[in-house]
Every structure is written in structure tokens, then in C-alpha cells.
Write a structure and sequence with these properties.
This protein has about 230 residues and is an alpha/beta fold. The chain has a single domain (about 5-230), classed as Spore Coat Polysaccharide Biosynthesis Protein SpsA, Chain A, CATH 3.90.550. Helices cover about 40% and strands about 20% of the residues. The strands form 2 sheets. Strands 3-2-1-4-7-5-8 form a 7-stranded mixed β-sheet, with helices on both faces. Helix 7 (about 180-195) packs parallel to helix 8 (about 220-230). The protein is globular and about 50 Å long. The N and C termini lie far apart (about 45 Å). Magnesium ion (MG) binds next to loops.
């Protein structure tokens, strides 16, 4: 039987210090998986690093967008591309080493019995390294609220580290999602549940970024709260 083909989608905005090393690390783990970087014309010229890596590695694609258009829109762009290229599944991950590529083989394994796999900080064996207490509390509280209100039956609804079958993507109207950042992530999950998807969580240790800065603004957190109620009521 032909092995399933997957693409890793990595959105970047000003990640010059991270993206090259991340591509190297992913390639140490797998030469087969295609990598699609979605860059929003980063002023630090992140794209240039990817172009240099394309000379070394095959199956590495770069989508360049004209300006910062948000994390959700970047994912939508990458998903459309992966579907049009005929991949069986996608993996989404942050470009700042918060999502350890070592987990990728476990994710693909878990996908054998599911439609989507979520890398979760809140299941046994999962956790967060180097976050200040207030951020841990915010994230835990947000996820508790999301579970109660959206009934996604997932402990980590805001984790961006996921593996999803493209068949499932085609079933949900993902490209209609207008919210960005954290809200995009749980709106996807909500839609997947509504479509009857089998979703598995596997533990991840989320590591705070060492280089670069946060791209998701504080207002995103309040917007995210509002869109949770919009979805539910
Ligand atoms: N293409 C694109 N990528 C984005 C955009 N906003 C965020 N990203 C990327 O999305 C991923 C997650 O953003 P982060 O800034 O790391 O968000 P975060 O993990 O909540 O914040 P930190 O803990 O500070 O890292 C990173 O790879 C970013 O480079 C955007 O508007 N466009
Ligand atoms: Mg980050």
C-alpha cells in the first residue's frame, strides 16, 4: 500500500532567527514530509532564509503573501495549497520551536485511528516550559471555558500543533473562518466536531520561544473570548 503523503504548514512572521533551524530539525526527522512555509512579507526577510534552504532540501515550498494578514488566513492559504497538491494530511506547527518536531512521528501514528490529532499541553504527559504563571493561568482558564461552552471534548483547544486529514478539511467550511489567532484554532476544532470527526489528543511539552517576539496581539485574546460566544449562541 502506498504510504500516506503529508505536508507541514508553517506560518511565519518575522521568524528569521527560527525558521532555518526548524527546517533543518524537521528534515533530520523526515525527508519525506513536504514543508510549506506561509510568510507574510516579514520585514526581517524570513523568506530569504527559506529560499536558501530550498537549495539544500527538496519538498520545501514557500508561499509569500504581500503583508501581515493574520495567522488564520495564513493557515487557510496553506490548507488550500496542500489540498490542491493532493496530500492526505497536513500538520500545522508554529515556527518558533514551541512545537517540538520530535512529536511528528507520534502524530502520524495517532492519525491512523483518527481524523485529527491535537498536540495537547493538558493531557497526561503534556505541559508547558518557561511560561510565566499568569500566562499559564490564562491559557488553562481559556481552555476550561472553551470546553464548557463549545463542548469540543478536547482539553487543549488553542494548541496550534495539529495533524488533520485533508478529507476532513474538505468536509468543513474552513475557508469561511474569518477569525485569526487563537479563535481560528478553536473555531476549526468546533467545526471538526460538528462534522463528527474522531479527534485524538497526544501529549506535547510546549516550550516558550527563545528568539523573536509574540506576533499575536493582546487584543486577540479579547476577540477570542467574543468569538467563542458568537460560535455558541
Ligand atoms: N504568516 C503569518 N504568520 C503568523 C502571523 N501571526 C503569527 N504568525 C506565526 O504564527 C505562529 C504563532 O505565533 P506566535 O507569535 O508564536 O504566537 P504565540 O506562540 O501565542 O506567542 P509566543 O508565546 O510569544 O511565541 C508563529 O510561527 C508566527 O510566526 C501572521 O499574521 N501571518
Ligand atoms: Mg509562539
Amino acid at each position: 500500500m502506498k504510504a500516506e503523503q503529508g505536508a507541514i504548514l508553517i506560518p511565519t512572521y518575522e521568524e528569521r532567527e527560527n525558521i532555518g533551524g526548524l527546517i533543518d530539525k524537521i528534515r533530520d526527522i523526515s525527508q519525506e514530509l513536504t514543508i510549506i512555509v506561509i510568510d507574510d512579507n516579514s520585514p526581517d526577510n524570513t523568506a530569504e532564509v527559506v529560499i536558501q534552504k530550498q537549495k539544500v532540501f527538496k519538498n520545501l515550498h514557500l508561499i509569500s503573501r504581500e503583508k501581515k494578514l493574520g495567522l488564520g488566513a495564513a493557515y487557510i492559504h496553506g490548507m488550500k495549497q496542500a489540498i490542491s497538491m493532493g496530500f492526505n494530511f497536513i500538520i500545522t506547527m508554529d515556527s518558533d520551536f514551541s512545537h517540538d518536531p520530535e512529536v511528528i512521528p507520534d502524530m502520524i501514528l495517532a492519525l491512523q485511528n483518527s481524523d485529527a490529532v491535537v498536540g495537547s499541553r493538558y493531557v497526561k504527559g503534556g505541559g508547558i516550559k518557561n511560561w510565566p504563571v499568569h500566562r499559564k493561568l490564562m491559557s488553562a482558564a481559556a481552555n476550561l471555558l472553551l470546553r464548557l461552552i463549545l463542548k469540543t471534548r478536547v482539553k487543549d483547544s488553542t494548541s496550534g500543533y495539529r495533524c488533520i486529514r485533508t478529507k476532513l478539511l474538505e468536509k468543513i467550511n474552513y475557508s469561511a473562518i474569518r477569525s485569526q489567532g487563537y479563535s481560528f484554532l478553536y473555531e476549526m476544532l468546533y467545526k471538526m466536531r460538528q462534522a463528527g470527526a474522531r479527534i485524538t489528543e497526544i501529549p506535547i511539552i510546549f516550550i516558550d520561544r527563545k528568539f523573536g517576539f509574540t506576533k499575536i496581539s493582546k487584543t486577540e485574546i479579547y476577540k477570542a473570548l467574543l468569538s467563542m460566544f458568537r460560535l455558541r449562541f
